[in-house]
Amino acid sequence: MGSTPAIAVPASASTAxxxxxxxxxxxxxxxxxxxxxxxxxxxxxxxxxxxxxxSDRALSHxxxxxxxxxxxxxxxxxxxxLDWLVEHSLAHRVGTAGGASGIERAMxxxxxxxxxxxxxxxxxxxxxxxxxxxxxxxxxxxxxPAGVELQGIELAAFGRCSHCRNAAATGAGSQPL
Length: 177
Ligand SMILES: [Zn+2]
Ligand SMILES: [Zn+2]
Prior knowledge:
Layout: H1 11-17, H2 24-36, H3 43-54, E1 59-60, H4 61-67, H5 75-87, E2 91-94, E3 108-111, E4 120-125, E5 131-138, E6 155-159, H6 162-171
Parallel strand pairs: 4-6
Antiparallel strand pairs: 1-3, 2-3, 4-5
Helix pairs in contact: 2-3, 3-5
The site of one zinc ion has 7 residues, from strand 2, strand 4 and strand 5.
Protein backbone atom coordinates (compact mmCIF):
# COMPACT_ATOMS: atom_id res chain seq x y z
CA MET A 1 0.00 0.00 0.00
CA GLY A 2 1.28 3.50 -0.73
CA SER A 3 2.73 4.44 2.61
CA THR A 4 4.46 7.77 2.33
CA PRO A 5 6.78 8.48 5.24
CA ALA A 6 6.24 12.14 6.07
CA ILE A 7 8.62 14.55 7.73
CA ALA A 8 9.69 13.36 11.15
CA VAL A 9 7.00 14.47 13.58
CA PRO A 10 6.44 12.99 17.02
CA ALA A 11 3.81 10.27 16.60
CA SER A 12 1.43 11.80 19.11
CA ALA A 13 1.51 15.21 17.44
CA SER A 14 0.93 13.87 13.93
CA THR A 15 -2.06 11.73 14.88
CA ALA A 16 -3.61 14.58 16.85
CA UNK A 17 -3.41 17.07 13.99
CA UNK A 18 -4.66 14.80 11.23
CA UNK A 19 -8.42 15.01 10.68
CA UNK A 20 -10.09 11.65 11.11
CA UNK A 21 -11.45 10.26 7.82
CA UNK A 22 -15.20 10.60 7.37
CA UNK A 23 -16.99 7.33 8.15
CA UNK A 24 -18.49 5.75 5.00
CA UNK A 25 -21.90 5.44 6.72
CA UNK A 26 -21.98 9.21 7.27
CA UNK A 27 -21.08 9.86 3.63
CA UNK A 28 -23.79 7.48 2.43
CA UNK A 29 -26.43 9.07 4.66
CA UNK A 30 -25.32 12.55 3.56
CA UNK A 31 -25.58 11.59 -0.12
CA UNK A 32 -29.08 10.19 0.39
CA UNK A 33 -30.29 13.26 2.31
CA UNK A 34 -28.88 15.71 -0.24
CA UNK A 35 -30.54 13.79 -3.07
CA UNK A 36 -33.92 13.48 -1.34
CA UNK A 37 -33.82 17.24 -0.71
CA UNK A 38 -33.85 17.71 -4.45
CA UNK A 39 -30.42 19.25 -4.57
CA UNK A 40 -27.49 18.55 -6.80
CA UNK A 41 -25.37 15.94 -5.08
CA UNK A 42 -22.13 17.92 -5.11
CA UNK A 43 -19.05 16.67 -3.33
CA UNK A 44 -18.95 19.78 -1.13
CA UNK A 45 -22.54 19.35 0.08
CA UNK A 46 -22.02 15.68 0.73
CA UNK A 47 -18.73 16.16 2.59
CA UNK A 48 -19.89 19.06 4.77
CA UNK A 49 -23.07 17.23 5.73
CA UNK A 50 -21.16 14.00 6.40
CA UNK A 51 -18.82 16.00 8.61
CA UNK A 52 -21.78 17.25 10.68
CA UNK A 53 -23.38 13.80 10.81
CA UNK A 54 -20.18 12.18 12.04
CA SER A 55 -19.52 14.77 14.74
CA ASP A 56 -20.73 14.41 18.31
CA ARG A 57 -20.80 18.20 18.72
CA ALA A 58 -21.72 21.31 16.79
CA LEU A 59 -18.92 22.51 14.48
CA SER A 60 -17.66 26.00 13.68
CA HIS A 61 -16.61 27.10 10.19
CA UNK A 62 -13.00 26.56 11.26
CA UNK A 63 -13.72 23.04 12.55
CA UNK A 64 -15.28 22.05 9.23
CA UNK A 65 -12.49 23.65 7.20
CA UNK A 66 -9.91 21.73 9.23
CA UNK A 67 -11.78 18.47 8.80
CA UNK A 68 -12.15 18.89 5.03
CA UNK A 69 -8.81 20.53 4.33
CA UNK A 70 -7.73 17.71 2.03
CA UNK A 71 -10.79 18.08 -0.20
CA UNK A 72 -9.70 21.63 -1.13
CA UNK A 73 -12.96 23.17 0.08
CA UNK A 74 -12.74 26.96 -0.05
CA UNK A 75 -14.42 29.24 2.44
CA UNK A 76 -16.94 30.78 0.05
CA UNK A 77 -18.18 27.33 -0.96
CA UNK A 78 -18.33 26.26 2.68
CA UNK A 79 -20.56 29.25 3.58
CA UNK A 80 -22.83 28.59 0.59
CA UNK A 81 -23.09 24.90 1.38
CA LEU A 82 -23.95 25.58 5.03
CA ASP A 83 -26.65 28.07 3.96
CA TRP A 84 -28.04 25.46 1.60
CA LEU A 85 -28.06 22.75 4.27
CA VAL A 86 -29.83 25.06 6.75
CA GLU A 87 -32.39 26.12 4.11
CA HIS A 88 -33.17 22.48 3.44
CA SER A 89 -33.44 21.56 7.13
CA LEU A 90 -30.47 19.22 6.97
CA ALA A 91 -28.45 21.34 9.42
CA HIS A 92 -29.13 24.06 11.96
CA ARG A 93 -27.25 26.98 13.41
CA VAL A 94 -26.40 26.89 17.09
CA GLY A 95 -25.48 29.66 19.44
CA THR A 96 -26.49 32.89 17.78
CA ALA A 97 -29.51 34.84 16.69
CA GLY A 98 -28.51 37.70 14.38
CA GLY A 99 -27.13 36.89 10.97
CA ALA A 100 -24.83 39.83 10.25
CA SER A 101 -24.48 41.26 13.74
CA GLY A 102 -20.85 40.48 14.41
CA ILE A 103 -21.44 37.49 16.68
CA GLU A 104 -21.28 35.20 13.68
CA ARG A 105 -17.82 34.05 14.68
CA ALA A 106 -19.27 32.05 17.54
CA MET A 107 -21.77 30.36 15.25
CA UNK A 108 -21.71 26.61 15.04
CA UNK A 109 -23.58 24.11 12.91
CA UNK A 110 -25.08 20.74 13.71
CA UNK A 111 -26.82 17.98 11.79
CA UNK A 112 -30.61 18.14 12.02
CA UNK A 113 -31.76 14.60 12.78
CA UNK A 114 -34.99 14.15 10.82
CA UNK A 115 -36.59 12.10 13.61
CA UNK A 116 -35.81 14.61 16.38
CA UNK A 117 -37.46 17.95 17.21
CA UNK A 118 -35.88 20.61 15.00
CA UNK A 119 -36.02 23.22 17.74
CA UNK A 120 -34.22 21.75 20.73
CA UNK A 121 -31.91 22.58 23.59
CA UNK A 122 -28.12 22.82 23.32
CA UNK A 123 -25.47 22.26 25.93
CA UNK A 124 -22.37 24.42 25.89
CA UNK A 125 -19.25 23.81 27.95
CA UNK A 126 -18.29 26.99 29.79
CA UNK A 127 -14.62 26.04 29.66
CA UNK A 128 -13.90 24.84 26.12
CA UNK A 129 -17.02 25.93 24.26
CA UNK A 130 -17.91 22.40 23.11
CA UNK A 131 -21.55 22.53 22.03
CA UNK A 132 -23.80 19.49 21.95
CA UNK A 133 -27.36 19.04 20.64
CA UNK A 134 -29.76 17.90 23.36
CA UNK A 135 -32.19 16.91 20.67
CA UNK A 136 -34.50 14.98 22.96
CA UNK A 137 -35.34 18.24 24.72
CA UNK A 138 -37.77 20.09 22.48
CA UNK A 139 -38.09 23.85 22.78
CA UNK A 140 -41.51 24.87 24.14
CA UNK A 141 -44.15 26.32 21.84
CA UNK A 142 -44.14 30.03 22.63
CA UNK A 143 -46.98 32.48 22.41
CA UNK A 144 -45.55 35.77 21.23
CA PRO A 145 -47.19 39.23 21.20
CA ALA A 146 -49.22 40.16 18.14
CA GLY A 147 -47.07 41.42 15.30
CA VAL A 148 -43.95 39.60 16.46
CA GLU A 149 -42.38 37.22 13.99
CA LEU A 150 -40.65 34.43 15.90
CA GLN A 151 -37.60 33.24 13.96
CA GLY A 152 -36.19 30.75 16.41
CA ILE A 153 -35.72 29.78 20.01
CA GLU A 154 -32.41 29.27 21.77
CA LEU A 155 -32.76 26.91 24.70
CA ALA A 156 -29.32 26.90 26.27
CA ALA A 157 -27.88 24.62 28.92
CA PHE A 158 -24.36 25.07 30.18
CA GLY A 159 -21.78 23.46 32.41
CA ARG A 160 -18.60 21.44 32.02
CA CYS A 161 -18.23 18.79 29.34
CA SER A 162 -16.84 15.35 30.15
CA HIS A 163 -13.45 16.23 28.64
CA CYS A 164 -13.02 19.28 30.85
CA ARG A 165 -14.30 17.44 33.92
CA ASN A 166 -11.85 14.59 33.33
CA ALA A 167 -9.01 17.01 32.70
CA ALA A 168 -9.78 18.80 35.95
CA ALA A 169 -10.06 15.51 37.85
CA THR A 170 -6.79 14.04 36.59
CA GLY A 171 -4.85 17.31 36.39
CA ALA A 172 -5.55 19.00 39.70
CA GLY A 173 -6.31 15.94 41.76
CA SER A 174 -6.52 17.86 44.99
CA GLN A 175 -9.34 20.13 43.85
CA PRO A 176 -12.20 19.85 46.33
CA LEU A 177 -15.65 19.51 44.79
ZN1 LIG B 1 -15.27 21.40 27.84
ZN1 LIG C 1 -28.97 21.05 17.73
